[in-house]
Amino acid sequence: MSMFIGSSSQYSQASVDPEKIKLSQIQFDATAATFNKVLSTCASKCLGGEYGESDLVTGEASCIDRCVAKYVKANMVIGQHLQEQHIEPYGSMPEYRKVQQMLEKGRDA
């Protein structure tokens, strides 16, 4: 028996909700896509083509910090605008409509 997670018998009756797995996968994919976009955009803007050192120089580090901050702020402003306008940002994508329905059920419960 682990003092951190308890006995293994408590998990023998656990069930896996496929809807929650799907929701987690959608959230992970969206987060990974955003991260990869920030990475590629900021790297192309802030890093030179040749790498003379293994560490970032001060100018590169501050450029990346500003780039990421701007990207995050822009995403936040766009998200707030979509919420205020009640615009469905994902159109007819069934996965996102399913997520929205699950979130609404969670709020009502």
Elements, N to C (H/E)? HHH
- In which range does the helix fraction lie? 55-70%
Counted up, domains total 1
CATH topology: Helix Hairpins
Radius of gyration: 21 Å
> Which architecture name does CATH use?
Orthogonal Bundle
What's the shape?
flat
- Poorly predicted residue ranges: none
State the end-to-end distance. 34 Å
Taken as a percent bin, the fraction of beta residues is under 5%
Which structural class best describes the helix and strand composition? mainly alpha
CATH class equals Mainly Alpha
Largest sheet: none
Say which CATH homologous superfamily is assigned. Answer: Mitochondrial import inner membrane translocase subunit tim13 like domains
Notes on the protein architecture:
This protein has a single domain (17-47, 56-108), classed as Helix Hairpins, CATH 1.10.287.810. α1 (18-46) packs across α2. It is 66% helix and 0% strand. It starts with 17 loop residues before the first helix and ends with a helix. The radius of gyration is 21 Å and the shape is flat. The chain has helices at residues 18-46, 58-85, 94-108. It has 109 residues and is mostly helical.
